[in-house]
Design brief:
Low-confidence stretches: none
Helix content: 10-25%
Number of helices: 4
Number of strands: 11
Strand content: 25-35%
Largest sheet: 9 strands, antiparallel
Shape: globular
Radius of gyration: 16 Å
Mean pLDDT: 97
Structural class: alpha+beta
């Protein structure tokens, strides 16, 4: 089961857990209210997994690739790690399925506080278009993930502030409706 919590404000290494003291966990229902959806799948059978195929079919995830984020596998590793950790949004949903390794997705809640979501092998997450978020590896410095898209992939990230995009406006309307 996925684990999520509110983050502290420490400037320490981004790859550390950054839990508030005392711990302030966040449940799946709270994540759903932000438009964040989660599935636990069997990553060892991702190539022939009927559950993954059903999710892809039901949600129209027609395109996929696999990315390995590790110093010896990802060109321009240091630059990419910094880029992934810049607070940004996308105009499309961001869908990631962890096939191996682990890392963190950080998302903003309704009060603009950071929630850290620990992702490990078998975890699949969808972040809605318009949500401010970022990604970092954990201290193991390795993740292999499937990236899924509806239609052709769009890789553009818009760093904050990006409130003028329709996707952000639609997301804010969604949040207002879930209040």
């Amino acid at each position: 089961m996925v684990e999520a919590w509110y983050m502290d404000e420490s400037p320490d290494d981004q790859r550390k857990p950054h839990r508030l003291e005392p711990d302030c966990p966040v449940g799946l229902e709270e994540l759903r209210q932000l438009g964040v959806f989660y599935w636990k799948l069997d990553a060892d059978k991702y190539e022939n997994d009927p559950e993954l195929e059903k999710i892809r079919r039901d949600r129209n995830y027609s395109w996929m690739d696999i990315i390995t984020i590790r110093k010896d596998k990802l060109p321009n590793y240091e630059e990419k790690i910094k880029m992934f950790y810049e607070e940004h949004l996308h105009l499309d949903d961001e869908i990631r399925y962890i096939l191996d390794g682990s890392g963190y997705f950080d998302v903003r809640d309704k009060e603009d506080r950071w929630i850290r979501i620990f992702m490990e092998k078998g975890d699949m997450i969808t972040l809605p278009a318009g949500i401010y978020h970022r990604f970092t590896l954990d201290e193991k410095n390795y993740v292999k993930a499937m990236r899924l898209f509806v239609g052709e992939p769009v890789w553009t990230a818009y760093n904050r502030p990006a409130d003028h995009f329709d996707a952000r406006g639609q997301y804010m309307k969604f949040l207002a409706q879930t209040a």
